[in-house]
Amino acid sequence: MALYGAPVWYDALSRENKLVLRRAQRFLAVRVIRGYRTVSAEAALALAGSMPWDLDALVLAALYKWRGDQRSHGQRPAPREIEAERLRTEEDAFARWRERLADSTYGRRTTGAIAPAITKWVRRRHGRLTFRLTQVLSGHGCFGAYLFKIGREPTAECHHCHRCDEDTAQHTLASCSA
Questions:
Q1: Per-residue model confidence as pLDDT tens for the chain (178 residues)
Q2: Residues 6+ apart with CB under 8 A from 172
Q3: Are 77 and 35 in contact (CB under 8 A)?
Q4: Domain edges within the chain
Q5: Comparing C-alpha atoms, which of 49, 48, 21, 25 is closest to residue 35?
Q6: pTM (predicted TM-score)
Q7: How far is 160 from 35, CA to CA, in rounded Å?
Q8: What single DSSP character describes residue 12?
Q9: Nearest CA among 30, 28, 48, 52 for reference residue 39
Q10: Radius of gyration for the chain, computed over Cα atoms and rounded to the nearest angstrom
Q11: Cα separation, 27 vs 168, whole angstroms
């Protein structure tokens, strides 16, 4: 419903309107990935495989304009031509999204890992995110460093291995004895 009539209103999108769209989409994405509310919008959208709605609206508007141009020249594009144009405009949107992810301020750990393969990540047909996997991918979860950062733990140390000064998702995956 958020993209209803997108080809009509896309050109009138202001920065403020994009922020309103992003706020609503972030809320939904955090729910989809079963993440903490502290996960950034960029990371939540990437993990959820949900292209930002302003870029989705761009794809819809570009395709609508292309079809209108075709009709104004007396041409009636075949379904395979429409699909090819949709894929082309979608690839352009993925390229823009990849740039946004690379330039993101928050969630760099997650966005840096997913950005190079964002198209494959979104189009994958297997696998799903669990609560624990989301914690590992986002770094927001039951890790000493994160809990210390939000004021829930007195130190960032690992509870399981006493040789570690900072319990992070990377430490848990690569070197924690537990």
A1: 889 999 999 999 999 999 999 999 999 999 999 988 889 999 999 999 999 999 999 999 999 999 999 999 999 999 999 999 999 999 999 999 999 999 988 888 888 888 999 999 999 988 888 888 888 888 887 888 888 888 888 888 888 877 777 888 888 777 777 7
A2: 136, 143, 158, 178
A3: no
A4: 6-125
A5: 48
A6: 0.82
A7: 24
A8: G
A9: 30
A10: 20
A11: 25
- Encoded tokens for 163: 């040789």
**Which of the 8 DSSP states describes residue 58?**
H
51, amino acid identity: M
Place of tokens 């903490």: 36
- Tell me 5's DSSP state: T
Instruction: Kindly state the tokens that stand for 116.
Output: 């190079």
Task: Using the structure block, give the residue that is written with the tokens 């080809």.
Answer: 7
Q: 70 CB contacts (<8 Å, ≥6 apart)?
A: 76, 77
Written as one letter, the residue type at 147 is: L
